[in-house]
Automatic annotation (TrEMBL):
Presence of the UniProt keyword Repeat in the record: yes
Localization: Nucleus
Keyword field: DNA-binding, Metal-binding, Nucleus, Repeat, Transcription, Transcription regulation, Zinc, Zinc-finger
Function per UniProt: May be involved in transcriptional regulation.
SMART domains referenced in this protein's UniProt entry, alphabetically: ZnF_C2H2
Major subcellular site: nucleus
Descriptive protein name: C2H2-type domain-containing protein
Amino acid sequence: LTRHIRTHTGEKPFECKLCDAKFRYQSSLNTHMKNHSTENQFNCEICNSEFSSKDALEIHLKLHTAENLFECHICGVKFSSSSDLEKHSKIHIRLKPFECKFCKAKFKFKSTLIVHTRIHTGEKPFQCVICKAKFKFRSSLIGHT
């Protein structure tokens, strides 16, 4: 009953003395402690990276071979799985690769840069069909009508 109650309270009374990780169950702590053990540790002979399981090492080894490589088309980093590449790609989403040549402001999307550039160029591509007034932004045209 005590174990079950912890699933509702979030209590984690078992703490790792090496890294301060906390667990609900003693068995979870015991499993975790194997990560700190140098016994049964799997090392990559190419780059000396360490892994707690043979499976993790085998996945890692694919990075050193041409087998099943997934390459980032933006920066060229290679991954052994498409899911790892997908996670990595989110880094680039946070970047702002589109820079204004007038004021150096940066944007995530090319479309946002195009709209921003109109501030500098004075371009007014949106025209009212009734009175022929021109506007820099679609929202201004919509607000006009």
